Structure formats: structure tokens, C-alpha cells
Amino acid sequence: MRLRALTIRILRQIIRDKRTIGMLLFAPILVLTMLHLVFDGDDYVPKVGLVGIPKEISSNLDLENAEITYYDVLADAEADLSEREIDGYVTLEKQQPIIYLEGSDPTVNGATLKWIQATFSSLQEAGSIKSVESQVHYLHGSSEMGQFDYFGPVLLGFFVFFFVFIIAGVSFIRERSTGTLERLLATPLRKWEIVLGYVFGFGIVTMIQSTIIAAYAVYVLDMMMEGSFLLVLLVILALAFTALTLGILISSFANNELQMIQFIPVIVVPQVFFSGLFNLETISNWLSWIGPFTPLYYAAEALRDIMVRGNGLEDILMEIIILFSFSLLFMVLNILALRKYRKI
């Protein structure tokens, strides 16, 4: 009887919590739907440039299954490769194909190189050109670059975002449940002062945590680092403040720690699909437009620009501005959300 009574009490408690029931049903369906749309996308189509290839040669090539751009000037192809308008280009020197790859994504490198080798193999077999495998150059990275080198910056950003989001949200809920927030609201403090106080307070801890995580990834795990570590810290801190302010904001809509955890599949997990772990060009059009509305999208791109491509501040400045803009937006929303706890 006691076991039955306990079971009924728990069931009634869950049934009364409409938000928990909704999350139990909605969150798995959302994640499974996104996984279906991601993995049901098209195969990656490499973007290849042909530089100064004679017409008598290019006319004998099967140029399907790739986006082809023709160049008469080598400098134009180099510029487009640097801007990632193309994944690689081919030029001929003394009947020897010379291949240049952008190099920052091993998966794209493999698809591009495979297409080039398959396309030029017929000319190689006919003796029109030499081997297509002997001359391959990389703008970024090398043939030894592994998947961890490419995905590492994304994972670094994700884990910083994830843990800061959880810690900030749960800590703010504890402030409410212990009555600390209510006592603060009863003082002459303004709402924006309370929000900034929490952001700066949690922000100091966040800065220390983010610095340790980034330093460990780069100097202990030997994650690829072509650019400045200080720029990596700057991006990580901008992302951490975004996660901090978002975590505090989302906690305003949760009544306890369990409900805060339930927001993870809705707020955090979907951002993984647009962070660079999956090529956005192969993702279904139903999802690809969401990426620019997520903070992790910009953080992952900035981290990859620094750590893999060796870019400087001028190349990632826009991403940093956008991340801090997210933080500012979430802080403003936090100030507005405090109205539910204080009657004006």
C-alpha cells in the first residue's frame, strides 16, 4: 500500500506539471526530427576551379557532380580559395595537374580530391596528363590534418556554452528558491542593476572556467592552433557571456532545476546542428536558415577561423560583435523578465 501511494503521488506530481509533460513529449520529437532532416540531406557537392585548362582538355572531362568555376587568371582562383568561394582548384604545369585545396575541412578536402582524381583519371589513363596525385597543396592544414583538428574548435565552443548555460540557470533558480532574489527586489536596487550584478558575479567565474578549458584544449590536448590564443580567449569569453545571460533568462521560465534541465534539448542541442559539426550545405533547407539565429554558429566559425585558418582580429570582428549583441539582447530580456517577480 505504501508503495502504491508513493507511485500515485509521483504520477500526480508529474501530471500537475504541464511543462514537464510537454518537454517529455516535445523535446525528443524535436531532436529526432532535426536529426532526420540533417542526415536526410544531400551529399556534399565540391566547388572546384579550373585555372587555364585548355578547351581540348576540359571538353573531354566529365564535370558532373561538382560546381565548376573557370579562371583565366591564377590570382582570381587564389582569392576565391582564400574566401572559401571554392574548395580547391586545378591548374596544369607541363601536363602535370597541380591541385590546391582550401584545406580547413578534412571531409571537404576528401570529397574535392576524390572528384578531381576521378575526373582527371581518364586523361591520365590516355596519357594526356601525368599523375593527379603527386602535386597537392593546402592553403590551410595539411594531408595529416585529422577530424579532431577540424571539429575541436566547435567542441570547445559547445562545451563552454553548455556548462556555462547550465551553471548560470541552475544558480539563478537557487537564488530564487532560497528567497535571495525576492529580498533583492524588495530593496531600492533597480532591475538593470540586479541583472548586471548577477552577470558580473557569475561572469568572473565564467571567465576563469573558460580560460582553463581553452588552455587545456590547446596546450594539453594539443588542439590545432594556427592563430593567437588570446583571440581564442576573446571568442570563448564572448560566447560564455552569451551562454550566461541566456541561462539566466531561461531560468526565469523554470520553477525548479529539473525544468531548467528540460530546456537543454530545446535551447542547447539544436545549436549543435548549426555549429559546424555538420556541413550546412548538405543540411535540409528546412533547417539551414536557423543557423544565423544561434550564438554557437558564430562562435564556432570564429574559433575555426583562428585555430584552423590562422585568421586575425579583423576576420572575426563581426562574429565577436554579434556574440556580444546576443548578450546585450538577453540582458535586456532579463530586465523585462524580472517584472514577473516585482510589481511595478
UniProtKB/TrEMBL annotation:
**What are the residue boundaries of the ABC transmembrane type-2 domain, all occurrences included?**
113-341
One short Pfam name that applies is ABC2_membrane_3
The record's listing under InterPro entries reads: ABC-2_transporter_component, ABC2_TM, ABC2_TM_bact-type
Indicate where this protein resides in the cell. Cell membrane
Q: What are the entry keywords? A: Cell membrane, Membrane, Transmembrane, Transmembrane helix, Transport
Positions of transmembrane segments:
21-39, 150-173, 194-221, 227-249, 261-280, 316-338
Primary localization class, coarse = membrane
Keyword Secreted: yes or no? no
Q: How does it sit in the membrane?
A: Multi-pass membrane protein
Q: Which PROSITE patterns does this one have?
A: ABC_TM2
**Has UniProt tagged this entry with the keyword Transmembrane helix?**
yes
The Swiss-Prot or TrEMBL record describes its family as follows: Belongs to the ABC-2 integral membrane protein family.
Enumerate the PANTHER family for this protein. MEMBRANE COMPONENT OF ABC TRANSPORTER YHHJ-RELATED, TRANSPORT PERMEASE PROTEIN
Which named protein is this?
ABC transporter permease
Q: Organism, per UniProt?
A: Ornithinibacillus xuwenensis
- Lineage, broadest ranks: Bacteria, Bacillati, Bacillota, Bacilli, Bacillales
